[in-house]
Amino acid sequence: MVPITSCLSQLKWDHFQYRPNTLDHIQLYDEASRGPWGSLRLLFTARVKVLSAWALALVSLFALGIEPSAQQMLIPLQRQAPLLNVTAQIGRAGNYTYKALWTSSHQSGSGPRNINPERLKLQMTIANGALGSVAKVNIDCPEPAEECRWEPFKTLAVCAKFRLILNGIRKNNGTIEAFTIEWSWCVKTYNHVVASPAGLQRDHYTSQPLQPYNWSSTVPQQYFDYHAYHVEGSNELFNISSTLTSMLFSYVGQLFTAEINLPVVMSSTKDNPGFSFGEFLYSADLADFAKNIEDTLTNQIRSSAPGDNSDAVTWPGQAFYREPYWHVYWPWIALPICEVVVTACLLAITIFITRHQPLLKSSALALLFHGLCGCENNGPSQDTQGDTKALGKLAKQIHVEFTKDEHGILKFVKVKDEQEEGHY
């Protein structure tokens, strides 16, 4: 807008320099240089027949739409961007060295062991998992990350198989049902794992059963501290503490071995003060129970602290945050570009037109020094001084030209009546 107002102010002087015009045109140019309303008045004044002034007035009005269009041109949005200085981590296990079920025997879980407070922690974790409160795997998705993702990875895990083996057999006016749950070692391949600082959001996996890997055909496997396993089609080895291969699942079976007699009778002397797993299992959805235990044991294997695997490691992932950016709608860019181009052209035209006159523009001092000449004897009467409406009417009747007076000083010189004809 600054070039437009400057050009209109400078053209004001040129408007009177080469031809006489009514004095009120000074006011029209001055108002047009101040904003759109004055520009609109200039356009609707047929007496000002200067194409350059009209063009500048049009650009001034056109500029009113630039600010609203700028809101359509640049839209603030957000997108996910990687955090380059942050690495997300998630639990993974290639080896399993247990902490809760430690024993000095390499062949079974029946050997002597030290006092181990981790044992109760594992029991409570499994019990909570059976109730549906599955312990989470260790995840580190630190802020300011909003989301963390991981590439596919494999980890040692536990798989469960739930089967109904006896159903609907009636005996002694009752119905007999029998179920079996089998836990086994497996490898789970996780895909599309997504988490946030609050926890895991999505993890899809497939599972494959583990197959024993024989290190030597001459040395029995029970003499190794770890049993090695692999999955079909892969050379990656997964190692499990030798005593744990059979001990863990029998231990879980012992935890949930219970007997319940119906009807249940309360007895302060005979009731077992331990966990009431019998009553829980009798009414529980055993398929969900098996899945909860599977997830609980898998997460314990994949985690170190809290967790039951001192050899658990982490798998690196990528952290993402919400990055603000500006979306540019390029068609709207044409509006300010057109305004800039047209304004630049009009500025060049104005400079060329007014190249021989002093650079006065909107100077108030210039109007004082180059004042009105030739109206001393028939100027405004005393009763109209200060009345802008009356002065405006009078200015429309006076034709002036910006030229040198008899002293060689540039003035707004009043022209004679016969010269005023036809200069509208």
Automatic annotation (TrEMBL):
InterPro entries: DUF3176 (IPR021514). The chain crosses the membrane at residues 329-353. It comes from the Eukaryota. Keywords: Membrane, Transmembrane, Transmembrane helix. Pfam families: DUF3176 (PF11374). This is Uncharacterized protein. It comes from Diatrype stigma. The lineage of its organism: Eukaryota, Fungi, Dikarya, Ascomycota, Pezizomycotina.
